[in-house]
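Technical note accompanying the year-one report. For the benefit of new consortium partners, we illustrate the data format agreed upon in the data management plan: each record pairs a sequence with a C-alpha cell string. No post-processing was applied to the example shown here.
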Amino acid sequence: MVSTTSLCHTFDNALGVELKKENTTAVLSVARNRLCNVDNVFQPYSGLQELSLSHNQLVRFPRGLPSSLETLQQLGNLTRLTRLRMLTLKGNRLSRLPPNLPPSLIHLDVSANCISTLDLSSLGALVNLQVLKINSNCLRSIPERAFDGLSRLRSVELANNQWVCECDILHFSNPLLSFL
C-alpha cells in the first residue's frame, strides 16, 4: 500500500515487495503508485511484453526498459523499442511529446498532460500511427502541416485543449473536415 503522506515514490518503497525477476513475466502493471523514478527496474524482465506505469508522477522517460515491450502504458526509453505498437502516456505531467518515438507505433495516447506544443519532428517519425489522443492538454494551436506525413492516421482526439481561435489556426480546419 502506498503511503498518502509522501508525494513521490521510487519503485522499491512504493510497492514494498521484491518481484520475481523471470523471463516468463509478460504483463506487469504498477499504475497509480505515485512512482517518480523506475530507472533500470524493469531491465531484467527480458520477456516483458506489456507494462503499465500510467497515472504515476513520472516527469521523464525511465532508463533501462526491456526491448521486448510491445505495449507500454506510460513512459519509456523508446529508441530501441522497435516492436512497440501502443504507447499510453495518459494522466502524467508531460509538457511535450516524447522525443525519439519509434516508427512502429500505431496508437499514441498523450491525453490529460500539460503538452502545449506539438513537436513536428516527433510526430513526423510516426509513419504507422493510426490513432492519436492528445485531448485534455494545453494546446493553443496546431502547427501547419502537423499531420502531413501521417498517411495512416485515422483518428485524432483534440478536445478539451486551450484553443486560441485566431486566423493562424484556420489552416487546421480543412484537415479536420476529412475526419468527419
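Partners are asked to follow this layout when depositing records. Residues 130 and 152 are 5 Å apart (CA to CA).
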